[in-house]
Amino acid sequence: MSGIVLTAGYDRAPHSIAVAEGLRRLGCPPTLILIAYPMTVARVRTILRSRGSGAILRYLRRRADGTAGPSPLADHLAAADISEKSLRAWAKRWNVRCLSVGDINAAGGLRLVKSAEPLVTIYTGGGILRRGFLDAAGRRVINAHSGPLPAVRGMNACEWSLLLGEPLSVTIHLIDEGIDTGAIIERIGVTAQPSDNVSVLRERCVVAGIDALVRHAHLMVQGRLHTREEEDPGPPQRQCFVLAPALRELLWRRLPDLVARQRHLAVKPEE
Amino acid sequence: MIRTGNLSTVDDSVSMLRYQAHLRATVDWIRRSIEHGGGGSAAHFSYLHGWSAPYPETSGYIIPTLLDAAAHLEDDTLAATAEKLGAWLLGLQHEDGWWPGGLLGRGAERKPSIFNSAQIIDGMVALARRNTDDRWRDAALKGALWLARTADHQGLWQGGNYREGYNPSYYTQVAWPMLQTWDLTGADEVRDAAVRALKRIVALRTPQGSIEGWGFDSGRAAYTHTIAYTLRGLIESALLLNDWEAFGEPCVAALERLNRKGELANGRLPGAYFEDWRAVDWYSCLTGNAQIALCLLRLEQREPDLRLVNGAAKLVDYVCKRQRIKGGIESTRGAVAGSSPPWGRYMFMRYPNWAAKYHADALMLLRTRLRSEAAL
Asked: Across the interface, do B307 and A240 touch by the CB < 8 Å criterion?
């Protein structure tokens, strides 16, 4: 076992680039990047449902107007001086093997992962990982989930945290065959600002996840993995799914109150 | 500044306005079914055969829908229509207490029906709760006593079944109106018979959470329509008896499974399931979709969790997307087809009045829940 495998959902995924670059700066760049290929009709449909077509149209309109609005992720990339826009370009620059696969669970991808003998695989996208992938990766696959586990597992976790009155947070955990049911490594609180909209809150979670993934992958490479298995998370809670339009509208309507309520819920960042 | 979009009141939100429009259209269609029903509500409309004969059973359980819709739509004429349906049904009640099964076509033989009588009792109880006129209460009690006295010590009925000799598990939906009558009148004899039937049915729960015999025919796949009957009957009975553990808890696993399936398919449930949960997926039973949404919302009232509301909203949205509320011919405007596609196995190419009833019920309960959440 030698290195780190990084999975990504698409070539221009900024959070994936940030994780790769963060690891490189710590002296442990990924040895293999797998980009699971992306734009099938089903995937586009899932993205539209997940974000809401209205949110995507507003985003595109703001981009066209040059008024993209606040973006914690863009701020993070700027502060870290990360300007690369493509994982492939980043990999080429730093001489890291980078491959695109149609399905992350397909045999070809599994062979690549297995032959890489990763100490740790960092999941930053690419679809649901099946048993074969997890086995090939030695079951050391970590993920940053944008919600508190086990309370908020599944899709739209940031939005559901707000609606369910759970603290906005990121949970670093090992991936197993269940949906966000693997051993918990760390929970990191995310602070909401009164002016935040849902996109901004979602990006705050992403930024917290980038830092934590880099930190934990680095620790794992050093042979220091600490899960919180001593803490009984209790039975998995009901899974969250993509918000229905009516619930998305409800979230918008109640957002100021829900964000205000977060002040009383906030998880303190752990030592 | 906090961005909340440009919504002023909850009822102005896009989804709430959409639900309101669908509710109005659905209720208008139900009213048309009554105009064509010769006193009751025509069971269904089809392009081939037009409006059918009236259906006493569904005319009965349409009554509470109309009463609720009168309040939701602020339309008192709907309450008056409900009373007219009730009066028509009173005229059909046999002196022993039962109501006839099947459609009330000209010359049709009138035979007692366990299930259909119970659904009419549901309507009678709704009318009795609304006003002090004793005739509704008396009719409900007479019907419920007939049901209680014809059930044996195991909670089985020997006659009056849809399939001779077969007591399906969706008879939980017989127990529920019986318990409503007990709740209204205090008739313990009715309660005891209902509990016997419920206990018998709960014992048929499989380790996978399905319930044996919850379809029209033993050994065949059950439509989500009758699955939902079974589950709803259990939920409502558990609430009326204040005994969730005995009668509510046994249906939770099935509901969770259906909720998950609906979520993953963006609101589309398979049309039918075998008892081992193999799905018949080439069509969806729209009635069942709406009924399962109701079950989820009722479960959520007991155990608040917006994730269940989300699942219910998707099931309702799926039905809305398959309902024409503008244009087309009047007889299908606001109607809900039995299946999607309409040539699906459940109510092939027909628009049943009970699909409209359950869709309207689901829309009203969903709107109420969303309103209450927005008001927090």
From this structure: yes
* CA–CA min distance B65, chain A (Å): 23
In this prediction, residues A245-255 reach a mean pLDDT of 94
pLDDT tens per residue across span B233-263? 999 999 999 999 999 999 999 999 999 999 9
Residue A195: its chain B contacts at CB < 8 A? 1-3
- B373 contacts A250? CB cut-off 8 A: yes
Rounded CA Rg of chain B: 20
CA–CA separation, A6 and A17 (whole Å):
10
Residue pair B357/B58 in contact by the 8 Å Cβ criterion: yes
Q: What angle do CA B39, B41, B45 make, to 5 degrees?
A: 130
Phi and psi, residue A205, nearest 5°: -65, -40
Residue numbers in A near B303 (CB within 8 A): none
B4, B264, B307 member nearest A238 (Cβ): B307
Nearest to B4 among A164, A244, A255 (CB): A255
Look-up: residue for tokens 């155990």? B303
**Nearest one of B328, B330, B323 to B359, comparing CA atoms:** B323
Strands (E), chain B: 44-46, 50-51, 222-223, 272-273, 279-280, 284-285, 339-340, 350-352
Q: pLDDT (tens digit, 9 = 90+) per residue, A88-117?
A: 999 999 999 999 988 899 998 899 999 999
DSSP single-letter state for residue B244: I
Q: Left, alpha or beta for A30 (phi > 0: left; psi -120 to 50: alpha)? A: beta
Tell me the shortest Cα–Cα distance from B250 to chain A, in angstroms: 17
The residue type at B282? W
